[in-house]
Amino acid sequence: MPTRPLRIAPSILSADFARLGAEVEAIDAAGADYIHIDVMDGHFVPNISFGAPIMKSVRGVTKKTFDCHLMIAPADAYLADFANGGADIITVHAEAGPHLHRSLQAIRALGKKAGVALNPATPVSTIQHVIDDVDLVLIMSVNPGFGGQSFIRESLTKIAQAHALIGGRDIDLEVDGGVTAANAKEIVAAGANVLVAGSAIYGGNDPATYAGRIQAIRDAVNTHNA
Ligand code: DX5
Ligand code: ZN
């Protein structure tokens, strides 16, 4: 069971962008803990989503934590834009540049929480020497770039390894990609406490369903039969 509070982080990548403000408001009202912001550059990942101005445009509709996942390379030149645009947590990929430690220091110097993300093929040992420089570790359970992909089961091993590396530190352990009510319990059992979900929550883009979908994930984690 989680040693830290369970947090559900719906990804606005699967929101209806034509009414993005309303979609963020709806997910706030439905019980989201973090708002997960997927930024893609068409270079680090094979897809383009949006940048800091779009994120900033919806900052005013919620007080919830903006959990900003940068799938961009290089990232350093854009960190200030995301900090100034209202991100609370800024996560960079360990694979995005040669100077991860510098990127993490830069995020904290901007007064924001620093996260590091690992692609499926990147070992957890990659971050062992920066673990005291992060506030969040993100284990990618799909290859980043698109919503709606299937959870890669080997990720469970990496989640457990990251959980062990984190130990008693004040660090969120987040999992992103293919998370549903059907696998949430084993993901949390492996040690995660922040669950990103795009299609499992925003799928269908019907605000009337969001609270039930978030609650279904919480309930799945809290059931007592494995
Ligand atoms: C993938 C993104 C994820 C994505 C998750 O590149 O980082 O946050 O939106 O979408 P689902 O939950 O549909 O896999
Ligand atoms: Zn993400």
Regarding quaternary structure, how should these chains be classified? Answer: single chain
CATH architecture: Alpha-Beta Barrel
Radius of gyration using CA atoms only:
16 Å
What do we call the CATH homologous superfamily?
Aldolase class I
3D architecture notes:
The structure is a single chain. With 226 residues, this protein is an alpha/beta fold. It has one domain: TIM Barrel. 31% of the residues lie in helices and 19% in strands. The chain has helices at 20-29, 52-57, 79-84, 100-109, 155-166, 184-189, 199-202, 207-222, and strands at 7-10, 34-40, 65-71, 89-93, 113-118, 136-140, 172-176, 194-197. It has an eight-stranded parallel beta sheet with strand order 1-8-7-6-5-4-3-2. β3, α3 (79-84) and β4 form a beta-alpha-beta unit. Zinc ion binds at residues 11, 36, 38, 69, 176, 196.
How are the SSEs ordered, and which strands pair?
Blueprint: E1 7-10, H1 20-29, E2 34-40, H2 52-57, E3 65-71, H3 79-84, E4 89-93, H4 100-109, E5 113-118, E6 136-140, H5 155-166, E7 172-176, H6 184-189, E8 194-197, H7 199-202, H8 207-222
Parallel strand pairs: 1-8, 2-3, 3-4, 4-5, 5-6, 6-7, 7-8
